[in-house]
Design goal:
It is a single chain. This protein is of the alpha+beta class and 254 residues long. The chain has two domains: 68 residues; 148 residues, PH-domain like. Strand 5 and strand 6 form a beta hairpin.
């Protein structure tokens, strides 16, 4: 529990700003200045108090550095991940998700829009798959405040996306993601990078095991080597034009 809350707290410090400076950097400044002023005698205090404040500041800086190094979350793979993958593969053959259907998830990884690229952690998102088999994760970033002082950046507001083909998925692992008060069922996708970038990890967490099984089965559905797959049904198929619709269109053009 403490680990997930630490990730969440430091991530919020990273994403919120005060006077164009991240709150995390403000915290680092306080942790450096406060012990220094006590040791230099700017205000009356005891050596023991100064020592305790210094140790506390070092602990805060170390915990913050550790959370940043872990990219604000930790994924732990299940011991029965292979069995979960086998069940998902059987389910994907029997009942793949309809194209364009959406499953609510939380996503962690890099997302892009309008030439910008950002890293977000445990952001509410929609998972969907097109008829072509391409997968898409869509997140909507709202305006937020933190500790009544920090504000999120306006240029990050709105929808962000990541698209990937089944062929670029190197591996899928089942486990749980530590972020916030409780770990959540999750998937880790290792996705191949482009020619000039390294492979990236994309994490999807879920409210329950059933949602994770649905998404895992959908990802397995388009995995190369899986044969005799039923055709993916479109959730919003194009409807044929009826005679009544044709007459209405003709009247609209007159």
């Amino acid at each position: 529990m403490f680990e997930g809350l630490l990730y969440q707290f430091v991530y919020n410090l990273e994403r919120h700003w005060l006077f164009n400076i991240r709150l995390r950097h403000w915290l680092m400044v306080v942790c450096l200045i406060l012990p220094a002023t006590m040791w230099l005698g700017f205000w009356e205090t005891t050596r023991l108090a100064a020592l305790l404040v210094t140790l506390g500041a070092v602990g805060v800086l170390a915990a913050t550095w550790w959370a940043v190094r872990r990219h604000f979350a930790r994924f732990e793979e299940h011991g029965d991940a292979e069995e979960i993958a086998k069940r998902a593969e059987k389910q994907s053959v029997a009942s793949p998700l309809p194209a364009m259907s959406k499953i609510r998830v939380c996503a962690t990884g890099f997302f892009e829009v309008g030439g910008m690229r950002r890293y977000f952690v445990e952001t509410p998102a929609d998972y969907t798959t097109f008829e072509t088999g391409e997968h898409c994760i869509m997140i909507q970033v709202p305006f937020t405040r933190f500790l009544l002082l920090g504000k999120s950046r306006k240029n990050e507001l709105g929808w962000w996306y990541t698209f990937f083909q089944p062929s670029v998925i190197h591996s899928i692992a089942s486990g749980c993601l530590y972020f916030g008060p409780h770990p959540r069922p999750a998937l880790r996708l290792e996705i191949a990078g482009t020619d000039d970038t390294e492979d990236e990890s994309l994490y999807l967490s879920f409210e329950d095991e059933a949602s994770r099984s649905l998404v895992l089965a959908d990802l397995k559905y388009d995995t190369p080597g899986l044969r005799q797959r039923p055709q993916r049904r479109n959730l919003y198929p194009a409807q044929p034009l009826t005679d009544e619709d044709a007459r209405r269109q003709g009247q609209d053009h007159k």
